[in-house]
Write a structure and sequence with these properties.
- Three copies of one chain form a homotrimer.
- Chain A has 147 residues and is of the alpha+beta class.
- In chain A, 28% of the residues lie in helices and 45% in strands.
- In chain A, strands 2-1-6-5-4-3 form a six-stranded mixed β-sheet, with helices on one face.
- Chain A has helices at residues 14-32, 36-40, 61-77, and strands at 43-51, 58-59, 80-94, 97-110, 116-130, 133-143.
- The first copy, chain A, is globular, with a radius of gyration of 16 Å.
- Chains in contact: A-B, A-C, B-C.
- The interface between A and B is medium-sized, with 34 and 33 residues.
């Protein structure tokens, strides 16, 4: 059924959709657990991370990892655990490049405290395969409060 | 393995499950982006949108779109960006009709402010295919605060 | 493509991934609806439910169901509706055992009130098949506020 007609719903097959979901789960769990070495490997060597909250994009895997580590260490010093939730994934595949538009929530929990929503964002990614793994080539994160 | 026995977990195959997830992502992104013309097309022409927050169901694609547009314009005038998150999808397929019960959160972010949970709901849908696309034939949204 | 190389992203196939997602949706909907008899059947007879919020693990399907029922009845008496959201699933399959690490949110809505985040947690599960159904053999829930 899925293969018979070109529709908005059937832009990707279930296997690719599943892989992208698992990729994001792993990527965000690595970030929130502070495993920056393995998190860095989920970006292309020449990957770019841009956001409407940043003055300029961060370019290159090493710089992306360093920026994330700095931010997470600062949060840990305040006793804050962040969780990055991605959901509502729209996925399009075009040759070797996968484009994803999804929602991303940042949830923050203080030690001995109550969790709260920190950021509501829209995340737009370009992913491709490198060495048998999905990696992010371009990410743009748009915070709703800054629109 | 999945095909061998009728279980609660294997009511639908992965391809259908994937299509429904992608359908919801697209539908909610259209709504939250204010693209009401394309959002309207995700409902059947004679679709019905009911809710425990509404005095009566809204019937017909055009009326559904008009109601959503009115609500979203009012929010935009207050500087509020809503994001509709659907998750925890239970999916059953019966002939041409797909029945989904899922959770739906409405998250609201004021300009220069902090996001908050606006509504926690349970969404029950009947979907079918029309012109090669999934469309909602019946939706019922039950807000937890009104139970 | 997915089958060609062993990568972090392709540890499970889409069908298994889909089944696990549907299992969790059903399991949490049963819990939140107060259907403890059917919820209990989503655990192995000798299942274990541990948490950093519990002094000791709860062992055995009957004890797990009794503990959930007691907690939910207490909430209902206060007019509170909880919704359990699981997301960001990492899934690994090893022989008959599936290991999942995911995020779990508890969202609470008072009657006539506004929903709020109650708990942000990481849930680590071991699942296996029993009688044609997925069941939880071991669950560990780690609340972020108690870390």
């Amino acid at each position: 059924m899925a293969q018979e007609s070109a529709t908005h719903d059937v832009i990707v097959n279930a296997q690719l959709h599943s892989e992208i979901q698992l990729f994001y789960a792993r990527q965000m769990q690595l970030l929130d657990a502070g495993d920056f070495d393995n998190w860095a490997l989920t970006f292309a060597v020449d990957g770019v991370f841009a956001a409407n909250a940043y003055p300029t994009p961060v370019a290159g895997r090493d710089n992306i990892a360093a920026a994330a580590q700095k931010a997470t260490v600062a949060l840990a010093e305040q006793g804050l655990q962040r969780r990055h939730w991605l959901g509502m994934l729209s996925v399009e595949s075009d040759g070797g490049v996968v484009r994803v538009t999804c929602y991303a929530l940042v949830i923050e929990t203080p030690r001995a405290g109550v969790p709260s929503l920190r950021h509501s964002t829209v995340c737009t990614d370009e992913l491709h395969r490198s060495g048998g793994e999905w990696v992010v080539r371009k990410r743009y994160v748009q915070r709703d409060d800054l629109n």
